Structure prediction request, 311 residues.
Amino acid sequence: MYLYCMSILNQKTLKKSVKFEGVGLHTGKKASITILPSKPNTGIIFKRVDLERNNIVLPNVYNVSNATLCTTITNEYGVSVSTIEHLMGALYGLGIDNALIEINSQEVPIMDGSAKIFVEKFLDIGFELSEAPIKLIKIINKVSLEDGSKSICIDKSNVSLDINFEIKYSNSLIGNQKNKINVFENNLSDIYNSRTFCLYEDIENLRKMDLAKGGSLDNAVVVKDNEVLNPEGLRNKLEFVNHKILDCMGDLYLSGYKIIGSLKCSQGGHSLTNRLLRKVFADKNNYTIFEIKEKSLPHTYIGKSILKSIA
Ligand SMILES: [Zn+2]
Prediction:
């Protein structure tokens, strides 16, 4: 029981370092990242090891410099790391609080277009628990944003982080999809495994914009009319909306906190999630920061499953 509580309330890092290699989805450039364990209260840090100086880039809300098709963070010296969201989603979902991510290029490798490879490797390596308590915020006031037909809001919840997402595509194969997850309690395999996707007719435009140069059927689901062009088909029935939930988890981690709140989004994406977080943090009345001390755990955070294991 003790260890179970520890695993939720104490900061975690990886047991040892791990390396991934691949191409960047947009740049098409080969890149390798090494994720190293790091000390409590250091958070997630990106380090551009191809640069000698000014090479630390922190994944925080205010460093997001571009959120059009992927999430790009840039430090005060103009040094960037892009397409961080699937890796950040994996770290967030698994509750990895501290890690140093060394990267030798500008863009995180896209791997298979999902967080599957990251998650499987992290679970394989295992975690190191520290004595330091996790960083937690609780949403108190509802904060919402609309942008044309897109909308997003976050409201309070008792003990969980819920993400309720819907997409509406005129393409009939994608169509309208909805899913709702509880980040801390649900099995997130379908979320981690869901790949990025695009419409076949958009590929030409992306290439004209000098984007998606590393994109292929090995790292993205491509939909043409009523058909999925990937020979293996979809990985789960809700793969499209599930991928948007993965993106959302990764983007929420730029808050630097585990969040207790209930998020609802319709047709949003990286930009809307970032704007929502900025709006939340713009007013201190919107949230409270929990200080978890060993002997004064906030009872509101203790989920039913923990209560069961204590009993
Ligand atoms: Zn994505």
Observations:
- Residues 85-86, 196, 243, 247 surround zinc ion (CB under 6 Å).
- The chain is about 25% helix and 30% strand.
- Residues 281 and 287 are 8 Å apart (CA to CA).
- Confidence is low (pLDDT under 50) at residues 1-6, 295-311.
